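Hi there, hope your week has been kind to you so far. Do you reckon you could talk me through the fold, stretch by stretch? I've dropped the whole record in just underneath, so have a look:
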Amino acid sequence: MRIPFPDARLDVRGAAWLEPTDAGLLPQRLPAWTRAQYPDPLYAVNVAHPSGVRVRFRTTSDACVLHARVSRTLVRPVPPAVETPPRPPGPIDVVLDGELHCAIEPIGTGLVTLDLAAITQHEDLGAPEALAVDLPPGDGRPRTVELWLPYRDRVRLVALEADDVAAPPAVDQPRWVHHGSSISHGAEAASPTGTWPAVAARTAGLDLVNLGLSGAAMLDPFVARTMRDAPADLLSLKIGINVLNANAYGRRMFAPLLHGFLDTVREGHPDTPFLVISPLFCPIAEDTPGPTVIDPTVTDHVEFVSLGKPEQVAEGRLTLRDMRVLVADVVAARRAAGDTALHHLDGLALYGEQDGVELPMADLLHPDPPAQRRIGERAAEHLSRLAQPPAQPAQTTQTR
């Protein structure tokens, strides 16, 4: 039985919508209306990376085949000394009745090229792939399968093939909507269930919507409106590192923009538990303002460096140390004004200076796979305390 996407029996979770294209349905993590407000074409690449997106269905089959087109991502230009071919595509994790069963490896014959100098993107579509999923022998009873899509590649869904397919049961977990930076997007996790939001959601029993966007956690109003309008039982925001990376704005604007973002989200979720997380430890930016770039003096691997100078802090430039104080102050002020469902978490509680010694960042900016997992496990403890059962089970839909 071959079932083309979309189909009511195939529940695509974590996507705002499925964009129809000639080559298949493309999961998009922000609503279609936001596209007109993206700051540049590169933003769209991150939105179409399906971090946290998974295909759910029920089957009695011992095997199935996902038909899809997978495009890797190549970023240019980079310093010549560290220029490498595009990375292989990430795996697709197969979760069977809630337990990680295996991973399947796409070939990824497509390629999305990001030109940071020209601020453009171009995609060469690859051939469709038939990705076989072998399941352990069952006893004839339907089992729930989740296919977690790669977090850093573009995936067009074409069809699912199996002997029988039925719609999965409605999700009864609290729905968690999270926004953050590339660290929340998944860099440098080993797999889609290895990103820290996926680890946290699976550990705490949450229904994840991951709005982690590489380089793009800037308190954009259209993201705030997306969170305002999204069904949610739990909300979170991890903010700071991208503001510094881009040197986007300074001390004068940081707190007012954070207040404005929270104001907008609260229009739709006045009482929903909301966790605001300040920056994790980052050795290059604790006391040095941005912007951050790939260090051209390091020739055998990729390392990042902050180009600001400590003395610029007096001029209003921000460091991570400054932003942790500002985030804590904003949350404290709002709680004092009556928003007791708003909570603060110091990012150092998730990944602090000692973690940087035990599990150092190879590129000095992004946590490696063991650190991603540690962050997720720690976050789960805090999220579990805040999560509330949904008012009613979330209905199974094609695009959720």
